[in-house]
Amino acid sequence: MLAEKALDLVRELQRSLDGTLPPYNEDKIRQVLEEMQTLFDQNKDKAQFAAEGQTHLLSAIQLRHAAIRRNKRCLLAYLYNRLDQIKKMRWEYSSVLPSDVKYNMCEQEVQWFNQYNRLLANYMRTLGDNGGLDLTQDMKPPKALYVLVRCLVDHGEFETQDGTTILLKKNSQHYLMRAECENLIRQGILEHIVQ
Amino acid sequence: MLVKDFKKDFYDTLQRQRVLVLVAFDVDALCACKILQYLFHCDQVVYTVVPVDGLQSLEQAYLENAEGIRQVVLINCGATVDIVDLLQPEEHVRFYICDSHRPVDIHNFYNAVQVKLLMREDELSTIPSYDEVFRDDEEDSDQSDEENDDPESGYKKKRFDDESILRRQERRQWNEERVRILFDYTKFTSYGTSVAMVMFESAWKLSKDTNNLLWLAIVGVTDQYVHFKTPRDKYMEDVIALQSHVSRHNQRGSDGESLLSVNCLRISFEEELHLNLYRHWTLFDSICHSMPIACKLRLWTLKGQKRLHEFLAEMGLPIAQCKQQFSAMDITLRSEVKARMQEYMNKYGLENQDIVLPSFSMQFGYKNLLCATDYVLACAASLESLDSSKLQTDNFLLASDILQRSSPEKTDAALEGARAQLRSLVSQVQSSLDMHQIISAGPFLYVFVQEGTADSRFFSQPMSLIRLARFTLQAHCSVTRNKRAQSLPLVLGAPLSLEEGTCLIIGIPPLDTDDERKNFFGKAFEQAAQSTNMTVKCNGFDTFIIEMRIEDRSKFFDALISILQ
Description:
- Chain A: This is DNA replication complex GINS protein PSF1.
- Chain A: Residues 143-194 form the DNA replication complex GINS protein PSF1 C-terminal domain.
- Chain A: It comes from Elysia marginata.
- The complex is a heterodimer of chains A (195) and B (565).
- Chain A is mainly alpha-helical.
- Chain A contains six helices and five strands.
- Chain A has helices at 4-15, 26-51, 58-93, 99-103, 107-126, 178-186, and strands at residues 146-151, 156-159, 165-168, 173-177, 190-192.
- In chain A, strand 2 (156-159) and strand 3 (165-168) form a beta hairpin.
- By secondary structure, chain B is an alpha/beta fold.
- In chain B, strand 9 (356-364) and strand 10 (370-371) form a beta hairpin.
- In chain B, helix 2 (27-43) packs across helix 19 (392-404) and helix 22 crosses helix 23.
- The longest helix of chain B has 33 residues, at 154-186.
- Chain A binds chain B through residues 144-146, 148, 150, 163-167, 169-177, 195, and chain B through 18, 37, 40-41, 44-51, 64-65, 67-68, 391, 393-394, 396-397, 404.
């Protein structure tokens, strides 16, 4: 059936879990593009005859053209949604993406990501008084300024903003500024204990 | 120095500074730590909690975390040693010691700058006065010595000589007196008010007490009772104080209906059956594993088992019902167990004290009715869990989670652990009695846990060791014909590590001085070790539990016998 493969691509994206990025399906995209090319070539041939007065060909041309446009829409939707997902990941994981996510991106996407990164970083630098403002932190207003954390591994010393050093030893418990330890929690060094 | 005003001298000085909290490995300390953590959360005090299981790890934890720390809170550790001497802190560091171990070291008490004690004042009345133990005139005596060397006239010199001899004599007397006073003071180790209770009362004074904190205080107080740290009178005193808090926090409506929602913590005071874990076990097993009743009926013997069956029959509790999970028992029987036991106990020589303990129970939602003693046993079991893949500190965090009531699964696992502990405890007591291993050495009884038995590893931990020693002594006293047994203390040895060839030795005071719960073995062990020149380690904070090499044991016991005679 016409445009079936393009629909597959969109379905594939929809099937993937929230917050994950499926591998870039280059193979299928190429197939879709080839299909579009053949359709286009056929149309080009037939268009001449139609222009010469064989009006019964017109409906077939119209159908092929609709298929081409549908393919295009599906491809664009596929690419756009992937970019959207990557954008979300930038806000979630900060500027360095995990390697498995990176592996699933195509080269153009990597380029786009880098540019997006640069734009965002430039923008954040202009905010605030000095040194900019990290917009990616505290996406939702935190309930408390401090959190109770538990150390999961021997991490060594950690310097806080006010200059004191804290020894993060396995199984020690600390009550720290949320902003300071948020990153360590994401890295799996600390565990947030909900009271 | 004693902290007089908790808010001004302790709490306010901790604000806006990072605090290091060092916590000992016991349930009471853990509860106190939880209360303190809650207070810190209220006022956003930044802190670090590190569990410590002995003086060595206390020292290490302090060294590791000391950087930039000005305030250190010690919970249930450190009062019995000169903390400034041990840790060699910088001058600006302040120590706040909240410890139930007694006696408090005199240096801690009289250090006005660096050490602050969070304790009840009336419990420190036995401490020797300053003049008796410290003397400020040491320079004087040096000066007079120097003066002696001055070329003065013979007469004057003679007079000085007389004076200095007098002074020296007086000084010697004072020194002897000092040693005597200090010996009297440190002769007995005992325990003061539970630290969780002290912390809770402080929270109450700050108007920050909640039902949750109250439950922690209850658990702390009960822990002291379960591990034989405080006598029954003291326990009752604390329970009465706690009960007024309980009724304040758990008010009920006029028609007996609870005003509180089901989903919050409810605490109630009741005369609880003093049977270990019976809500989470079968009634029959629970009776067999509870110390007072098991010792009175001698349940480890065949005759005792018969008597128990008789007792149950007389109470009208079918044996089939008693041997299934308590929660699955017939509801009418279940609600009458206590009343029936109290009705028929006299015939079997049981007293009210053996069966009923005024205690508290808490309920959270519709499930999880837990009474305080069971809670303590579960926490202690998870603190002393024997899982070798886990670190000690993992156990600490697990017990802390249980106190948080974060997951019922963890609590259930801990209760299972507690049951396993009790089972091994009773079978150990039974085998010591059956094999007549409890031997009278003259001034005391002694018994060794056999090495290599399956259960012996349970007793490498201080809390279960205390319970085992006490159970053994009580069981022995109930069977022996020796009338003196009541007045004999017990020394119990248990293997600690087979690879290193070490064992733990614990000494507990005789039963007839049970009202005081004062233990003289700390000093006795110290002297015995001194007289034999042996290296014994006392790693924990209880001096009556020591660690030594197995081959030194007999020599040590000879010395101990000669000291106690």
